Amino acid sequence: MKPYYIQVPILNLCFYITLLFTPFLVPVNPAEAKSLYTFAQVVGKENQPELSEDYISQYLNQETEFRHHLDLVQQFYKDRSFELAWFRNGKMIPQADKLIEAIGNANKEGLTPKDYKVKDLRGLYRRYESLPASDEIKQKKQQELDLALTASYFNYASDFYKGAVDPHSAAAIEWEVKRNKIKLNKALETILEEKEHTPYYEFEAVHEGYKKLREALVEYRRIQEAGGWSKIEGPKVVKPGDTAEVVLALRKRLLPQQQVIEQDTAFLVYDKKVENAVTDFQNRHGLLVDGVLGPQTYEALNVPVEDRIEQLVLNMERWRWLPKDLSPNGSEYVMVNIPAFRVYVMENGKEVLQMKSVVGETMHSTPIFSHQIQYLMFAPYWNVPNSIVEEDIKPKLQKNINWLETQNMEMVTTFGPNAKRVPVSRVNWNTMTRNNFKYRIRQRPGPQNSLGKVKFMFPNEYSVYLHDTPADHLFSEADRDFSHGCVRLERPADLATYLLKDKPGWDRNRVIQAMNAREQQRVDLPDNMPVYLVYFTAWVDEEGNVQFRDDLYGHDKDLARKLF
Length: 564
What we know:
Oligomer: single chain
Keywords: Cell shape, Cell wall biogenesis/degradation, Peptidoglycan synthesis, Transferase
Pathway: Cell wall biogenesis; peptidoglycan biosynthesis
Structural class: alpha+beta
Domain L,D-TPase catalytic: 332-514
Active site: 467 (proton donor/acceptor), 486 (nucleophile)
Protein name: Murein L,D-transpeptidase
Radius of gyration: 31 Å
Strand order of the largest sheet: 3-4-5-13-11-10-6-14
Shape: globular
Mean pLDDT: 89
Helix content: 25-40%
């Protein structure tokens, strides 16, 4: 039964509509204005047909690409009492054009438009428009088009906002960051202007990191269309001050704004401008920054533009997997980018702290997941995992039964304050395995402790955390994959000071004192800090430079097999 006001005589109806568009001398209460707007919407839908669950199921099950969105489509129409969504007064609303345009431009998002053109939406509308109002088929065509638009939206929006690949269903991708929980049926309501506008309203991405990669994709595709770049070949090593033919190629590639005169031998000299350009290139590709044209720099220069485009698309996909709000209870979070060997602290979308890191070697790769830093442990014990006891410590004890003492280590009954020391002679080290070892080994606090002077705790199934290290020399390396999975920090005191900035009494001086104490001390954070351990091999930095890194663990290759 229709609401009573639909049956108002036509003169009264005209009066109400006139009121909607007539300036008022008396201010209108916002609640009353909303009521009038709702009334106008209802009037616009008066003569529209409605759908049914059975009809929706029947229609969507005819198309494989629509079928897997059946639940979403049903819920969307159920929430609106099965009224059509994309029509007002028998005409397709402007938002339908926005959707069709977004699908047509899917390649700009690193997606494939044909994947979402399941139905010829404009063709369906032309067919609908061509039918006279008296034709009984017209209503059916209207229903079909409305369903096709809704299903096409979910087909496209699911990939655009959540990712074309579900990382949690593909074990090889190894991505356990918390899911993006966007409710696409609610997002569609914003598209249709039926609820408060959000970024979804304009089919816009929600992360700046993604948007910057999208801009880079346009530029690299422009380079591709222009023929890409030529291969750089020359002597094995070219240093500043050298003269070589390859310098001409370097100038054309890295200094495109410079006018090169090939007949002028001065352009063959590896001068300061070329050195600076090579240094900048090495910086942007995570190479050893020495200004020398050597094997690794040659290799990075000669990666085809098509491969760089693929790398950009893969990393845009990873951004879609991240939650819309990276810091749900505040404005700050910590991000560890594993292939970059970097840790970033973000506040209100801006980078406020950055430092080098050491991550897990390939055999002990750092896992990709998210959590919350809950507390810091100053002057920590290093509780050695049994796997390391078996693989690394057991062989040393077989050769020297006193080896633990030389490393300021001890064998105990358990980790924690109730631990009691046990002589290592109690264990038959020839038959010991990680599974039958009933004791624990730990390293005492001190300057040589493997965890350094502080660790940042977010208890997790991987037993991975951020921590200091006495091996500071490792931070001078370009590739820093040396750990057993944990993340070592270049400037742990800076991060500790930042995390404790809102805790009374904890300034930098007290942080330094706690780090250099001889007794372990736990300090809880005022509020838990979100931390993301992620895997981006391409991104755009704060200065707008496109950065590329090697596929450290082969995750790019695994994702490419799923995505392309």
